Structure formats: C-alpha cells, structure tokens
C-alpha cells in the first residue's frame, strides 16, 4: 500500500522547483533501495532528511549510525521537528550508536546473556557482519503489538565498515542480506550513504560504490561544485531513478538541482538560478 | 536533570559530550567558550588565528589532525601550542609519543605572553572603581559580574617561542605521559584484532585515564570538571610499529583507521579533545589518507616553503608556508562554517603565529 502525504510544516526541502523528481524524496515507497552518494562534499543532510521524514510518516526505523554520536543526530532532528528519544521510547526507532557499541565491545565486560554486540567484529576479527545483520533483522521484524507502517533501514555510512577491516565482499554480502530481509520479505525500504570521489585511490570503496549503484532503485548524488567553492551554492544534487518505474509516477531522466543548506532546511534551484547570480 | 531539558542525549552514568550551551556546569570550565549557535563547547587550539579559521575553536570531543610538513617543524610547533594552551588554561594533559620522551616535549613548550594582559586589566579596574553609580545606585554594592562566561582565563593566548614555559606552571598541571618504548613491557589486556600493539596500548592508556580521572562523568562526586587535552605525535610513523609510511604495499592498512575509530568513540563520550600529527607526505597509499580524513573531525595540512623553490620566490617572502584546511566538522547542525577563502598562508614570528589570506598564484 503506497502512502502519500503532503507536508507543509517544518519540511526539510522548500521551494521545490519542479514536482517531478524531487517528489521522489517525499514518497513512502515499498521495497526500495535508495543510495545516497557524496563526492567532494558532505551528503549527511540527506540522511537527516530521510530519518525525520520516515519517522514523521509513521514507519518503523532502524538507524545504524556508525560515524557520529546519538546527540548529533538528535540535535539536528529536533531542528527538523522530530524527537529521537521520544521515538525510541515508543518503539518506533531502534538506534545503533556505533561509537558507543565499539566502546562497549572493547572496554566493557561482555554480558553473559542477551544479544551479542553488533560490532563484535572489531574485537574478534573474522570478516563477516553477521552480528550486525542479526541486529537489523531482529529490530525490524514486526511483533504482534506493532502498528507501524513499512520498516526502514538507514545506514550512515557504509564506507566506515571498510575502514574497520571489512573486505568489500563482506560489506556487499551484508547489504544483500539486508535487502532480502527488509525489501523483499518485509516490504520495507533501505537508505544507505556512501562516500566516493573521482580519481580516488581507494579502489575497495569504489568497488562497493559501483556495486551498490547497480543494485539501487534510486540514487541521490550530492556533489561539490566542479568549479570550486561558492558561498551561496553548496553543491548540486543529481537524482537518478533506476529500476522498474512505479505505476503512479513518471519515469524520469536524471535531473540535477543545485542546493544551499541553511540552518533548518535546504533550498533547491535549477542550475544557474541561484540568488547569488540573479 | 538539566541535560534532559536541553534535549541532549542522556545515557546512564556517562555524560553526553555535546550539550546545550546554557548548562551552567559546563560553562564554568576554564579555557572554554560555548558556541551558542551549535550548542557546543569550544577550546582554543593555542593559535588564535587558527581558531578564527576553524570557526571559533575546537569543539570538545573532537579530533584535530595535522598533516605534517616535510620536516615536521611547523606541525611540531602547532602541537606544542596546543599543549601550552592546555597548561595555561588549567586543563589536564596526556602526551603520547614514540619518538621523544613526553617529559622532554613538555619542557620545551613556549611561554605564554601574559604580562601585557595583566597590565591592561589592572589599569582598567582602577579606573572603574572610582565611578559612582548615579542612577542604578542600589546596585553599587553588588559584586561585579564577569564579562565572559569562562571562569578565569580568557580564550586563546599568544606565545613567545624563544622562551620556555616556567617549570612552576608545568608542575601545577596534571600531565600524563605515554612513551612507547617504556610501555612495551606491559601486556595489553584488551583484544582488538589485527591492530598494532602500540596502538592497542595507547588506547588502553587513554581509556584508563579518562575513566580514572572522571572525564566521562563516571565519578559524579568530583565537583570540578575539567578538560583532558590529548596530544599524539607522529602517528603512523615507523616508530609506532606501522609500515604504512615506509612501503608502497603495507601489510596491514587497517590499524591506523581502526585506531582512529576507537579514539573517536573515546573522545565523543568524554570531555576531551585530541591533536594528532601524521606524516602524510610519507604515506604512499593515498587510500589510507582518504579514510583517515573521513574518520577525523578537523583536518589541517601544512606545507612549508623550506627547501622548495618558493623559499626564494620574492612573492612569498613574507610567509613561511601554506596551510590547507581540508575538513571542518559539521556537528549538531546541517551546515558547517567554512571560511570564505581557501588560500591561506602562515607566518611565524617570535611572538605570533598568524594565518593570512594570500593573493598569489600557487
């Protein structure tokens, strides 16, 4: 069942130039894999958008935050109108704080019962992300009392797993297992952030990025401007729909918008139409 | 609890590293300044012009990574400025090195220029005491309020590199040392797979100090909170047991990145800040430096003119090198402060280390 909602209060993106492609960011699809990609800039504003959007839409969210602390996401989410501690308390949000789990797995005694730590590969080595996948599966499998809409997995970000000693094939296996469970079985969505760069020497990262690009249904690519730094334009966003088209939305060609990030929202405009230029 | 009202994350027994600026307990920490826009606590890096370029200072709980210049002269100087600022502000220090004994590093810290500031303050105060309040006379006898929220010292000092810090000031500061050749004999009792043993010992040492001295809020009975400044010199060099800086195909490319990730988890959960200098010019595998940049918060690269053709170039005669700000953290907000210009050069004088915009072609 596709849910469509129009929101006017406290949305992240305002001044939508054309409804076509950007509307893809406001639609709760089912069974979709969205890849967030950034080059020469920081694409985490997209992660914050999707987190607050899916929480407001009433979906059950599992957020794997590997790179920043919980309070960082919380402060930004509050600016966007969502309270993460409240979502956690009512069971809508399951938040894995990677930095805290890493500390616990290394410096604290392991509890005798209960789930193994999802990041135990840091301590034990081996190269599989099975514990992390089990965490995702148990968090998103609906229980009888759950009344949330489709489950959503958000990962920020996948490139960190490569820095922690995982091979590209392990990372791709993990994503594949998650897609089978979350997208196919549970009819939910996955949103994943990766960093990439042109002429990067990090071949393992480029391998993972290319493989994920081929598997995704939608790619949102935030790039820093090729002409250099500009105060009024922070970057450009390419929206690349892939895969089978939904019956109710038109199949679009890739569209590019330039954006400027402000304190509580992001404004989009067509290329060359920034207020600095006009 | 006040932290709940401000919306910060509350974990049992562990203090959140980023809190709203309005909390009175944290604003009274010496040598810090709250950044009201982001709800962070800022520290000075020891160089006021670098603080300005970084958006006000270094946030508590973050990591400043310096990519060393070719001979390590200016990066060593920034390292010492950072530690000296900690001593002058009354913070605790943790100095780690595999090359020099930390005690020797601490003996060579530059002396702060405090005398001129004291003179200005006494002159100002004596003028003020002679004014009577004509209108608000009921407030005449109330104690004077401090203009700045910081309890004692001001934010950011200037240093004289030709003089060293006085031994009395050094003795009054709590400094923890980590000198790798001396720590080899101890056996580490945490197990991180495939990490160089030097790094494991260093992480263990840092975690032990953070826990014992209560920087993570684990000893709430200690009323006076303080900041821990961690300085790690020359990380990634051969002396730490790594081979990434001496071969093209190192055996283990994950040690350094894993170390930085675990260090990040320690920094985020405690009232601390860390400076690390890395010999980036020696690391041939650029993929490692990309990952290291992604795992650090603030990344600054130094390029000195010593030995290059720019040393004799009349255009650059005023400057000693270029400084590249590769990354500034984007914490607690969607946007980040980026300085408008990217062409920055630095100049070292005896009493001043300045960073200025330069207009010349690079």
Number of helices of chain B: 11
- Tell me the distance between the termini of chain B: 53 Å
- What is the overall silhouette of chain B? globular
Number of strands of chain B: 14
Subcellular location (chain B): Cytoplasm; Nucleus
Family (chain B): Belongs to the ELP4 family.
InterPro entries (chain B): Elongator_complex_protein_4, P-loop_NTPase
Organism (chain B): Crocodylus porosus (Saltwater crocodile)
Describe the structure.
The complex is a heterodimer of chains A (278) and B (362). Chain A has 278 residues and is an alpha/beta fold. In chain A, 34% of the residues lie in helices and 23% in strands. Chain A is built from 10 helices and 12 strands. In chain A, the strands form 2 sheets. A 10-stranded mixed sheet of chain A has the order 2-12-11-10-9-4-8-7-5-6, sandwiched between helices. Chain A has a two-stranded antiparallel sheet with strand order 1-3. The longest helix of chain A is centred in the middle third of the chain and has 18 residues, at 168-185. Chain B has one domain (32-112, 156-357): 3-Layer(aba) Sandwich (Rossmann fold), CATH 3.40.50. Chain B is 28% helix and 20% strand. Chain B has 11 helices and 14 strands. Chain B has helices spanning 2-5, 24-27, 48-53, 73-89, 102-107, 115-128, 167-171, 180-183, 197-212, 255-268, 286-295, and strands spanning 32-35, 40-43, 58-59, 63-67, 92-97, 110-112, 159-164, 175-179, 228-232, 272-278, 298-304, 321-327, 344-348, 353-357. In chain B, helix 9 packs parallel to helix 10 (255-268) and helix 10 (255-268) packs parallel to helix 11 (286-295). The longest helix of chain B has 17 residues, at 73-89. Chain B is globular, with a radius of gyration of 22 Å. The N and C termini of chain B lie far apart (53 Å). Residues 1-15, 19-24, 117-129 and 146-152 of chain B have low confidence and may be disordered. The interface between A and B is large, with 51 and 46 residues. Chain B: Belongs to the ELP4 family. Chain B: Its main location: cytoplasm.
